[in-house]
Design a protein that fits this description.
The complex is a heterotrimer of chains A (296), B (327) and C (324). With 296 residues, chain A is an alpha/beta fold. Chain A is built from 10 helices and 10 strands. The radius of gyration of chain A is 20 Å and the shape is globular. The two termini of chain A are 30 Å apart. The longest helix of chain C is centred in the N-terminal third of the chain and has 42 residues, at 28-69. The chains are: A alpha/beta (296), B mainly alpha (327), C mainly alpha (324).
């Protein structure tokens, strides 16, 4: 359980001194981030839908075994950028990323890269839980089964292990053959997490996973994230600043700019830094405004 | 004094308001209108019931008098020996051909249009084309069958060898006729699959074919089956293309009788043939009332039983799954 | 690192850090399979285009003989269609088609539209779920059955009762027209109902909110808003009526000869029935004879007529979808 202590404002290099504490950032395990390898290296990423540039100038390093959060108001491109990481934007006709995303040093959009291979390694949990209309067992087993038959014993233990990690095992262990649609919203989302981690991915992408859940279900998933982050790398998009502060090690703040000619909004990465820094001592005024609730 | 005036006024206002909004409860014109509309719908029900009653009235006597002989017998000049066995065999093979040809092809085309095709002009063209084909009169499909499937079998153009009017040619002609129906109903069934399901499967690393096979098609299956059943029922009831393709209307040789082996005998595919709708048509045009009224009605009973059964089953299936999905 | 081995439980997540051998290009066998499936489905879709081409080719390759050989003056002005005596007047066929379709529309449009309005605007859900299948069942009745009913019941009991027994004894364009109308009711009803249900509820609420009664709202607000769909229903029904063969072949009274007449009580030979009768005559009508070619010529006419109507009708259907 994380210990909620208020952090001291770090060396105040801002002109107007330390800002008032709007968000509490709990004490995270103090690993030196530089010691963690970089999983995603994003340089000058922009995403276009047809001619429309939805988000621009994204520069981020996602480190292994950390939780990186994308925060910001609606429509600023957080989900768009997230979906680039597992090539899910390929499914949208006209979506076109420009710039570089390197995954463990390999360009993710290289010419010979198979999106299916990418998605085997990079799992995704969606905003609204979307379990398959199958049994709980078959939902979790779906991903592993794509890549070959396993002996029943092996599959059983894989399913159990995944459900344990998703903190769902105790609730469903007696009804694995029941339909997934009979679960509550929070349980369904944990099932989707179990489904995603059953393929033993390297990275877990979570797109506002708690936005359709109640606070208790949300808290369980936040705890779950802390428990599994040492096995995976997690990138989470969230509307909820407090959640980002509670849970993440690094935070990227996105905002929108209105293009005066077309009146359309383009997303832009404003600031990317350690979570403590973002929430206590941000470099950019826009970040500070968002954190303290002055807009957005 | 002033207070009582106010009170009296309030009472008067209340009274006139009550009168305005409570009066004229009965909206006679409106109710008559609604009744007239309901009658329109009831007329369809009445017509349906009347048709069935008429057919049963004319045709049941054939079954009570001759029973199995009618089903087992073949076409004949004399009304009390004529039977529908050859028609049943013909219709069986037509239904089978439609099942084997149209349904896989139709599902394949729909899967392509909904899951693979990019949103470009070619795709729109194919979709419009399918929609237009669905509206082409069945007799024109008969012309297609005549020109291509019948004559092509002989390898000549315009060859007048009647022996090429085979059952398989007729089956393929009808398969082509109902193909657009299968494509359209399958397309709608696939469109109803929620995108969240596809994303969930892609997100775990499934390929496009794996997503289709393991998520889309299973979810859409009730709609697809419904469409397939409706297509088969439609094909069994069509007569015009069969006339064009050269179905036998008079006599069809010796009847092989009605048995499992005679029905399932595939050699009938390469012979000349007849089918239930053709028998009904030719008997309806004979002057002898025993043929025109009684035998024709009896044949209708047999065919209608099959068609109505299949249609009703398909509709019930669709309604049941729609309710389940909505829940 | 994926080694494709199916019994491996150790997936990429356990392998630490970046390695030079990280291969994201995927299994070539799987790529081949995916491409094959895609190609298979593409061929199926293209098949539908092939069919259209085949139809047009069949019509013209055989109809051309007639188009080039016939004396078109006679064809367009003569009052008789009798191929066995080398008479190829198109006018009686067209007129018969129009008469039968006209009668059919008089039957189908009020009944179909009325049923649709009732289902869309008035019927409570329980009644609707009970009554709507009636139309669906009616739609599934094969045309030969309706043809039998038209000849055997409608002709004596409706035509005969209303216009005298002699007209009810055989087929007539009126009896056939009523039969075709019955056939078209479900089509009119379903397209009209879809059009009315597409009208947003906010319009009905606005009208009720102003104090209008339901009949007024329906007639003055909903129907005008749904007019694209109603036009579509009408056009598609006309196309269906024109293309109907069996009802007219059996119940319109003419065997193989079409005589010009605009009187619905007379017998008539429509374009479709003419084709059926040409094809069901003796087999000698096949081959390179003019009669055989005339079959395809009428087919050409019919095909393009119904195609044109369907395209226009579908255009109106699309307008319904776009408007809302």
């Amino acid at each position: 359980m994380t210990d909620h202590t208020v952090t001291e404002p770090s060396d105040a290099v801002e002109d107007d001194g330390p800002m008032p504490q709007a968000i509490e950032v709990p004490e995270h395990d103090r690993r030196d981030p530089e010691s963690l390898p970089i999983v995603f290296e994003v340089r000058d990423l922009a995403v276009y839908y047809g001619d429309f540039r939805a988000v621009r100038e994204v520069n981020i390093d996602v480190r292994q075994h950390e939780i990186t959060a994308f925060i910001g108001p609606s429509g600023c491109g957080k989900t768009t950028v997230l979906r680039c990481f597992d090539r899910m934007n390929d499914l949208i006709p006209g979506a076109r990323p420009e710039g570089t995303i390197n995954y463990h040093g390999v360009p993710l959009y290289g010419p010979k890269v198979d999106p299916v291979e990418v998605r085997r390694r990079i799992g995704m949990v969606f905003q609204k839980p979307n379990p398959f209309p199958k049994s709980i067992y078959d939902n979790v087993a779906y991903g592993p089964r794509l890549r070959g038959r396993r002996r029943k014993g092996e599959m059983d233990s894989l399913v159990e292990e995944s459900l344990h990690k998703a903190a769902l095992w105790d609730e469903v262990k007696d009804r694995l053959k029941d339909s997934a649609n009979g679960l509550s919203g929070g349980q369904q989302q944990r099932l989707c997490i179990a489904r995603a981690i059953a393929t033993k991915p390297d990275v877990l992408l979570m797109d506002e996973p708690c936005s359709s859940l109640d606070p208790i279900a949300t808290a369980r998933i936040e705890d779950l994230m802390q428990e599994i982050k040492n096995e995976f790398t997690i990138v989470i998009v969230t509307h909820n600043m407090q959640q980002a502060a509670r849970v993440s090690d690094a935070t990227a703040f996105f905002s929108t700019e209105v293009n005066p000619e077309s009146d359309r909004r383009t997303g832009v990465l404003v600031e990317f830094d350690r979570t403590e820094t973002i929430f206590s001592n941000p470099s950019d005024e826009r970040t500070e405004n968002y954190i303290t609730g002055r807009f957005g | 004094m002033a207070l009582t005036t106010i009170a009296a006024n309030r009472g008067a206002v209340q009274g006139s308001v009550a009168q305005a909004i409570e009066g004229r409860r009965s909206d006679l014109r409106g109710r008559l209108f609604e009744l007239a509309l309901a009658v329109c719908l009831i007329v369809s029900l009445v017509v349906l019931v009347l048709m069935i009653y008429d057919v049963l009235g004319d045709g049941l006597s054939v079954y009570t008098e001759r029973g199995w002989d009618f089903l087992n017998g073949g076409l004949s000049q004399s009304a009390d020996r004529a039977g529908i066995a050859q028609g049943i065999i013909g219709s069986f093979w037509i239904a089978t051909t439609v099942l084997v040809v149209s349904i896989p092809l139709g599902i394949g085309a729909a899967v392509y249009l909904e899951e693979y095709a990019p949103r470009n002009r070619l795709t729109s063209f194919i979709e419009i084309n399918v929609r237009n084909l669905a509206g082409v009169p069945s007799v024109v499909y008969g012309l297609l069958g005549l020109a291509i499937f019948v004559e092509a079998l002989g390898g000549f153009v315009g060859k007048s060898d009647a022996s090429h009017s085979t059952l398989i040619a007729a089956g393929v002609t009808l398969a082509v006729l109902v193909l657009p129906i299968v494509i359209i109903t399958t397309t709608e069934a696939i469109r109803a699959v929620p995108n969240a399901l596809r994303e969930g499967a892609y997100g775990v690393g499934a390929t496009r074919w794996e997503v289709i096979r393991s998520q889309v098609l299973p979810y859409a299956m009730p709609g697809i089956v419904t469409g397939g059943l409706l297509a088969i029922a439609r094909a069994v009831g069509e007569a015009a293309p069969l006339i064009l393709v050269g179905a036998l209307t008079g006599l069809a040789g010796r009847s092989p009788g009605l048995s499992v082996s005679s029905v399932l005998d595939p050699s009938s595919l390469t012979d000349r043939f007849t089918a239930m709708p053709i028998i009904i048509t030719s008997w309806s045009r004979l002057p002898d009332p025993d043929f025109r009224i009684h035998n024709a009605a009896a044949a209708i009973i047999a065919m209608l039983a099959f068609v109505l059964l299949v249609n009703t089953f398909a509709i019930l299936l669709r309604n049941r799954f729609e309710k389940k999905r909505a829940a | 690192m994926s080694d494709g081995s199916s019994s491996s439980l150790v997936g990429p997540g356990i392998t630490p850090g970046p390695t030079a051998a990280l291969d994201l290009s995927g299994d070539p066998r799987r790529h081949r399979r995916e491409r094959a499936m895609g190609a298979l489905f593409f061929v199926a879709a293209v098949g539908s285009v092939v069919i259209s081409v085949a139809i047009i080719w069949s019509l013209f390759s055989r109809g051309w003989d007639f188009i080039s050989q016939a004396s078109w003056g006679d064809v367009l002005t003569a009052d008789t269609w009798n191929p066995r005596q080398n008479m190829y007047g198109l006018r009686p066929l067209i007129v018969a088609t129009l008469v039968v379709s006209g009668v059919a529309m008089i039957v189908a449009v009020p009944l179909g539209l009325g049923a649709a309005i009732y289902l869309a605007e008035f019927a409570r859900p329980r009644i609707r779920s009970f009554l709507k299948p009636i139309l669906e069942v009616l739609a599934g009745v094969p045309s030969v059955v309706i043809a039998f009913f038209a000849l055997g019941w409608i002709a004596p009991h409706i035509v005969g009762t209303l216009f005298g027994e002699e007209h009810g004894r055989g087929g007539s364009m009126l009896a056939a027209g009523i039969g075709v109308g019955i056939l078209a009711i479900p089509l009119v009803a379903s397209v009209s109902e879809d059009a009315m249900r597409a009208v947003p509820n906010s319009l009905r609420e606005a009208s009720s909110g102003l104090g209008a009664r339901k009949m007024h709202t329906t007639l003055r607000v909903v129907l005008p808003a749904a007019v694209s769909g109603l036009v579509a229903a009408f056009i598609l029904a006309v196309s269906r009526a024109i293309g109907e063969t069996m009802v007219v072949f059996i119940a319109a009274g003419a065997a193989s000869v079409g005589q010009y007449s605009t009187n619905p009580l007379d017998s008539g030979l429509t374009m479709t029935a003419a084709m059926a009768s040409l094809a069901s005559g003796t087999d000698s009508v096949r081959g390179a004879t003019l009669a055989y070619a005339s079959l395809f010529m009428v087919g050409i006419f019919l095909f393009f007529l119904t195609l044109g109507l369907n395209i226009i009708g579908n255009f109106f259907v699309r307008r319904v979808r776009q408007a809302y």
